[in-house]
Amino acid sequence: MYSATFIFDKKQYDERFYALDEAIAEIAKQSAGYLGEESWENSTTGRICNVYYWQSLEALQTLMQHPKHLEAKAAQANWLDGYQVVIAEVIRSYGDGKIDHPAAAFGH
């Protein structure tokens, strides 16, 4: 299992941003290997963190190479005031079972 964490500070969003964001979300959710996602916003700084979970690195790379994702990446400076992406291999996941989470089935 892999996670892709997208951390960013936002500027002003426009209609193009919302259209691309919606299209990419649908493409991801319909992709083989997509397991789920979660998101947080820091109420003090406004910084946003989205974490996406994938069965394999190949599944993640398929989305990263999709034309809509590449279009959004090329235009990111219009909407974002800086970003960082962290790709990680999940080696363990555990909990008490009370939280429905994409990595719960991956527990060791």
Task: Set down the secondary structure blueprint.
Blueprint: E1 2-10, H1 15-29, E2 34-41, E3 48-54, H2 57-64, H3 67-74, E4 80-89
Antiparallel strand pairs: 1-3, 1-4, 2-3
Helix pairs in contact: 1-3
Pfam families: Monooxy_af470-like (PF13826)
Protein name: Antibiotic biosynthesis monooxygenase
Organism: Methyloradius palustris
If you had to describe this structure to a student in words, what would you say it looks like?
It contains 3 helices and 4 strands; from the N terminus they run E-H-E-E-H-H-E. With 108 residues, the protein is an alpha+beta fold. It has a single domain (2-106), classed as 2-Layer Sandwich (Alpha-Beta Plaits), CATH 3.30.70.100. It has a 4-stranded antiparallel sheet with strand order 2-3-1-4. Strand 2 (34-41) and strand 3 (48-54) form a beta hairpin. It is globular. The relative contact order is 0.29.
- Identify low-pLDDT runs: none
- CATH topology type: Alpha-Beta Plaits
Largest sheet: 4 strands, antiparallel
Q: Estimate the global geometry from the Cα principal axes.
A: globular
- Using the CA coordinates, give the radius of gyration: 15 Å
Strand order of the largest sheet: 2-3-1-4
CATH class: Alpha Beta
Q: What is the helix/strand order?
A: EHEEHHE
The number of domains: 1
What is the straight-line distance between the termini?
Answer: 12 Å
Percent helix among the residues?
A: 25-40%
Query: Which class of secondary structure composition applies to the elements?
Result: alpha+beta
Beta content: 25-35%
